[in-house]
User: Which sequence fits this backbone?
């Protein structure tokens, strides 16, 4: 299978996704959500999409923002651990719903711990991260030690 670096072939489209991603990050901050939570959402979405490039990048970013190795080790099974707050659990469940596009909507994340602005911010963050995962996987970005 032939891989094409999408960012090099269509740099304007790539820059548009970059702008979307930056706006989603800013929406998370404006909504009063912790930067570490944003990284957890990016990591979980990347796990679901199988994007090694984004997993490595956002794991490093999460560590730089103070995330612990224990929490990172269990984020793939967040619902089974006691490491995450109610708000973090809601955000991760919402990000999974956005990524998987479950129909009908499950709404398991809707426990009142996220306000409307935060729901929108996490949704946009997951949408942007899904775009990045698809760009990285489709472009076959190298991930080597």
Assistant:
């Amino acid at each position: 299978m032939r891989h094409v670096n999408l960012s090099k072939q269509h740099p304007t489209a790539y820059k548009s996704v970059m702008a979307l991603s930056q706006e989603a990050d800013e929406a998370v901050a404006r909504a009063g959500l912790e930067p570490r939570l944003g990284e957890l959402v990016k990591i979980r979405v990347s796990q679901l999409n199988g994007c090694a490039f984004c997993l490595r990048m956002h794991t490093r970013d999460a560590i730089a923002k103070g995330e612990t190795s224990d929490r990172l080790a269990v984020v793939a099974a967040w619902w089974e651990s006691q490491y995450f707050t109610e708000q973090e659990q809601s955000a991760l469940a919402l990000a999974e719903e956005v990524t998987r596009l479950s129909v009908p909507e499950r709404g398991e994340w809707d426990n009142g711990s996220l306000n409307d602005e935060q729901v929108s911010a996490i949704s946009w963050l997951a949408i942007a991260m899904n775009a990045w995962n698809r760009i990285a996987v489709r472009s076959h970005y190298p991930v080597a030690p």
In short: The mean pLDDT is 91. The chain has seven helices and no strands. The chain has one domain: 11-139. The helical segments are 6-9, 11-30, 35-49, 52-64, 69-74, 86-100, 116-139.
